[in-house]
Amino acid sequence: MSNTPDLQSIARQVMLARGFHPDFPTEVQQQLHQLHAQPSGIATNSDIRDLRNLLWSSIDNDTSRDLDQVEVAEPLPNGNAKIMVGIADIDTFVAKGTPIDVHAASETTTVYAGVKNFPMLPEQLSTGQTSLLENQDRLSVIIEYVVDQAGNVSADNAYRALTRNHAQLQYNSVGAWLENTGSAPAKVAASAALQDQLRMQDAIAQKLKQLRHEKGSLELETSEMTTLMHGDQVIGLVPQQKNRATELIEEFMVAANGVMARRLEKVSSLRRVVKTPERWDRIVQLAADLGDKLPPDPDSKALSEFLMRRRAADADHFADLSLAVIKLIGPGEYVLERPGEAAPGHFGLAVQDYTHSTAPNRRFADIVSQRIVKAELAGKPNPFSDSELTAIAANCTQKEKAARKVERDMSKRIAAATLQRRIGAIFDAMVTGVTPHGTFVRALQLHVEGLLAQGQKGLDVGDRLKVKLIRTDIQHGFIDFARA
Questions:
Q1: Residues 33 and 119 in one domain
Q2: E-strand spans in 165-260?
Q3: What CATH number is given to the structural domain containing 478?
Q4: Using an 8 Å Cβ cutoff, are 140 and 165 in contact?
Q5: Which of 36, 93, 205, 393 could form a disulfide with 334 if both were Cys (CB 3.0 to 4.6 A apart)?
Q6: Using CA atoms, how far apart are residues 192 and 181, in angstroms rounded to an integer?
Q7: Per-residue pLDDT for 367 more than 70?
Q8: How far apart are CA 83 and CA 72, in angstroms?
Q9: pLDDT confidence bin for 152, thresholds 50/70/90
Q10: Which domain holds residue 440?
């Protein structure tokens, strides 16, 4: 008998407990009916360019249908390259203050709960009308910039356009091809032009990555897990792997979000920031424990260089070190940035100007950025007051934190379901959290976290130990370990 229906029911309960509203109100369904009855409204005018002839493509997860962006690159005569990132134009379909918008503003994010996704926007939109699906004409907001041969970004611009995704591709297969560990996906193999396009994008992305690392961007590796399903049955968790395709999209989006942030400097807008780590002293101690040295004051470049040394010295355990550093740096947050004011920047990415704008199907902050830039392009006033943006920033930060808790809660329940038969087994582990509620560890072979119910005294984040699995509780997501 499948345990998936129970886990899906539990996922909904967890969503409610964390402050989400997983069911769309009746008013949303009424608005969807009206949108379906209306003509698509896709047409070009003096403000909307027709760029459907360009070789746009998308790269995303194997099962993704809520496609937010497409990309294309053009070589320039001087050896530089022009990058265009097309972002789904959600605002055209979801106007400010409408029922769908009010619900999205409340939820702020799509939540991926392992056995079930809880979309911020109705799937009729996010995987349909507003998704940049293959061979569909779509309105987009274009973020354009030039990358020189050293990886510097310049000549940025934003405008509206009509786009058409010519190849919907997946990270795993494209990554393997780019890394010469697998054959080209069928769509890529069938088109020499697409092969050239993707290789050019990959080369540009690696230049962007190299320059960010030179400036102090942190190359962190996490052991995020994906639920492995067989039909409706959960059969385990598998680690997500980064590759050249995921790096390609990450680098293009970091650059695009920087372009958008600079574009909005003259108006009030949202910024995505990761402040200087408060627990830098513990990061320094972790380095010292490994025979290395970091300066006494926070320094992202020094930390980046330390991490690169550790990757080279001990690649097998680099993800564990990355996890400890991520926990000690702390999560990002959204803040209001007024004209002339400087936000703290993003410590982990080593960028000063950063916002979220490239995933409006999945994040409300990105819809806000899109509305502001569209108003700016049209010569209209900012559609949001400072007080509105302050409230939106606070709610987005809070709901993003809640979403991480839902995902963590469900990963524990899924892990508990797969570990029922392994009670008494011994695992290598690392401390990932020390809180008033208890000490938490990650079993490294399993890539799952649980409470260290026995033997926790004197431990801190990053410490290594052996643990024994002593209890699992699927309903509550409890995974308890004892120090072995």
A1: yes
A2: 168-170, 225-230, 233-239
A3: 2.40.50.140
A4: no
A5: 393
A6: 19
A7: yes
A8: 6
A9: very high
A10: 423-484
Q: Considering the domain boundaries, does residue 201 fall inside one? A: yes
User: What are residue 481's DSSP bridge partners?
Assistant: 452, 469
In percent, the amount of the chain with pLDDT more than 70 equals 90
Q: Which amino acid is at 308?
A: M
Q: Which two tokens stand for residue 339?
A: 């004209």
d(CA 352, CA 239): 31
> For residue 364, what is the DSSP state?
H
Length of the chain: 484
Domain stop point among 372, 393, 413: 413
Do residue 124 and residue 49 come from a single domain? Answer: yes
Q: What is the pLDDT of residues 62-71, one digit of tens each?
A: 889 999 999 9
Question: Which of 219, 259, 5, 11 is CA-nearest to residue 118?
Answer: 11
- For residue 431, give both structure tokens: 């401390």
State which of 369, 392, 413 marks the end of a domain.
413
- Comparing CA positions, the residue from 226, 242, 241, 240 lying closest to residue 418 is 226
41 or 321, which is more confident? 321
List, in sequence order, every beta strand (DSSP E) within 117-268. 117-118, 137-147, 153-164, 168-170, 225-230, 233-239
- pLDDT at 344 (0 to 100): 65
Q: What is the mean pLDDT of residues 343-361?
A: 76
CB-CB neighbours of 379 under 10 Å: 6
- Assign 83 to helix, strand or coil: strand
Residue 224's φ and ψ, nearest 5 degrees, are -70, 145
Contacts for 452-456: CB closer than 8 Å, 24+ residues apart: 452/481, 452/482, 452/483, 453/480, 453/481, 453/482, 454/481, 454/482, 454/483, 455/482, 455/483, 456/483
Residues 31 and 120 grouped into a single domain = yes
Beta carbons of 430 and 323 less than 8 angstroms apart: yes
The residue type at 156:
D
Amino acid letter, 480: D
Q: What SS3 class is residue 164?
A: strand
Structure tokens at 217: 């961007």
Alpha helix segments (H runs only) across 336-481 = 364-377, 386-419
Q: How many structural domains does the chain have?
A: 2
Q: Do residues 183 and 144 both lie within one domain?
A: yes
Q: Is the dihedral of CA 10, 12, 15, 17 positive or negative?
A: negative
Same domain for 46 and 192, yes or no, is yes
Are residues 427 and 386 part of one domain?
A: no
Per the listing, tokens 């799937």 go with: 123
In this structure, is residue 257 part of a structural domain? yes
Return d(Cα 120, Cα 115) in angstroms, integer.
Answer: 16
Residue 462: per-residue pLDDT: 87
The tokens 């040295």 sit on which residue? 293
Specify the amino acid at residue 79.
G
Residue 168 has a pLDDT of 98
Q: Left, alpha or beta for 285 (phi > 0: left; psi -120 to 50: alpha)?
A: alpha
Q: Does the residue 340 lie in any domain? A: yes
User: Are residues 128 and 40 in contact, defined by beta-carbon separation less than 8 angstroms?
Assistant: no
Do 252 and 85 touch, CB atoms closer than 8 A? yes
